[in-house]
Structures are given as structure tokens and as C-alpha cells.
Design brief:
Length: about 160
């Protein structure tokens, strides 16, 4: 069952503007927001609007709450960007460089890196404050380090010819 909404419906003037926006909106997300408000004004519940527009119900609720707070400006307002990147491109390149360097060259007692060992080394050297092994694996994979995709016990060689 849909949760009850205490959000006001658009006025007649706002409905006319929404219809104009629906026809002239350049971006798909603007058209979706206008459609959400028009369907809500027609008496549909948020879950049925989500189903009709093939959107997630939380997206519809967010659109309706934005309208409640900002009015029609919410239709034209850009979507919020994602989370801020916590690892810079300089840190990324340093991670890739270290991954291709043999641990013995850095004075470490083991012959090859594991994700856990590389992560611990990066944290001890204060190159990054924190990183999960999975995130580290994705960085290595995106950096075209062949050692990242095969798991910790892989014998796949790196670009330098040494196994990871």
C-alpha cells in the first residue's frame, strides 16, 4: 500500500506551466518531473506514477517533495551530483605505480602484492586515509592492471611481468 502524501497539488496556473514544460523541456529528467506532477494532480498515487513512468518510487517521492518545497523551480533544477570523489587522480596514479612495483623493491619481505597488503601499505605510507579492498581492486582494474581481475591467488603477470 502506498504511503499517504501530505503534499499540495499544483494550482491551475501551475498545471498550465507544467503542460508547457512537458512539451518544451530539453532534458528527459525535466519531462519526468513534469509528468510526475501532472499525474499527481490527476489523483494518482506515487507508486502508480512510478509504475507508469518506469521510475523508482523513491524518485517520484523525491520529485513530489521537491515540488512541495520549491514549487515549479524543482522541475527545472538540475539533479544533485553524486558523491565527491575521495581519491584524486594523483593518488590513483600512485596506487597503480605501486601495484606494478615489486614489494621487495620497497624493502618489504614478500614477493608480490595482495589487495590487503597493498591497502595496508598505502594506509601506512599515508597515501590514502582509507580504502576497501574492493574499491582498490576496481581502481586497479580501471587502470588496466591485469592483476586486479583474477583474485588474490592469481598468477597472472602484470605489465612488468611479475605476478600480483
Amino acid at each position: 500500500m502506498a504511503r499517504p502524501l501530505q503534499i499540495r497539488k499544483p494550482t491551475l496556473l501551475q498545471l498550465r506551466r507544467l503542460a508547457q514544460l512537458l512539451e518544451s523541456a530539453p532534458a528527459a529528467w525535466q519531462r519526468r518531473r513534469a509528468e510526475v506532477l501532472l499525474l499527481y494532480a490527476a489523483g494518482h498515487e506515487a507508486t502508480s506514477i512510478a509504475h507508469a513512468l518506469q521510475a523508482h518510487p523513491n524518485t517520484v517521492y523525491a520529485d513530489l517533495h521537491a515540488f512541495e518545497q520549491q514549487g515549479l523551480r524543482s522541475v527545472r533544477q538540475r539533479p544533485q551530483p553524486g558523491a565527491v570523489a575521495r581519491i584524486t587522480s594523483v593518488q590513483r596514479s600512485e596506487i597503480l605505480r605501486l601495484a606494478e612495483t615489486a614489494p621487495t623493491e620497497l624493502g618489504l619481505p614478500w614477493g608480490r602484492w595482495s589487495l590487503a597488503k597493498l591497502r595496508d601499505y598505502l594506509r601506512r605510507q599515508k597515501l590514502i586515509p582509507a580504502i576497501s579492498r574492493e574499491h582498490l581492486r576496481r581502481i586497479l582494474k580501471k587502470g588496466a592492471c591485469p592483476c586486479a581481475g583474477s583474485g588474490a591467488n592469481s598468477s597472472a603477470p602484470t605489465r612488468s611481468g611479475r605476478p600480483f
